[in-house]
Amino acid sequence: MRVIDKPWGKEELLEVNEKYMVKRLTMNKGHRCSIQYHNRKTETIYALSGLLKISHGAASEQLMDVVLPPGEYMTITPGVVHRMEAVETAVYLEASTPELDDVVRLADDYNRD
Predict the structure, then answer these.
(1) Is 111 among the domain residues?
(2) How many domains does the chain have?
(3) What is the pLDDT of residues 40-52, one digit of tens each?
(4) H/E/C letters for each residue in the chain?
(5) Is residue 112, in this structure, part of any structural domain at all?
(6) 32: domain range?
(7) pTM for this predicted structure
(8) Residue 27 falls within a domain, yes or no?
(9) What gap in Å lies between CA 86 and CA 100, rounded to an integer?
(10) What CATH number is associated with residue 34?
(11) 67, 83, 84, 87: which has the highest count of C-beta atoms within 10 A?
């Protein structure tokens, strides 16, 4: 298993192959990832613990919020603008197509490209 430290927490790559990818992510309370979208990647987010807010929509200015408690999930398709934020420290799974580098960041709290 490969662990990638992030400014908001960490990502653990559980499986990466030519057909799919599974990650376990831990996002610390009050932190959030970048506002982003994917050109090809489809991902399903499954909340394991804590509370995870997902803001999603057609554009950065048109985001709707959904809060996922443990046991709930949401699928994000290519082109959907989104951002995850930990209302409480959240652990969640991301099952997706295998495009690791398919991230277009529109805004980021940590000044990443």
Answers:
(1) no
(2) 1
(3) 999 999 999 999 9
(4) CEEEEECCEEEEEEEECCCCEEEEEEECCCCECCEEECCCCCEEEEEEEEEEEEEEECCHHHCEEEEECCCCEEEECCCCEEEEEEEEEEEEEEEECCCCCCCEEEECCCCCC
(5) no
(6) 2-100
(7) 0.94
(8) yes
(9) 22
(10) 2.60.120.10
(11) 84
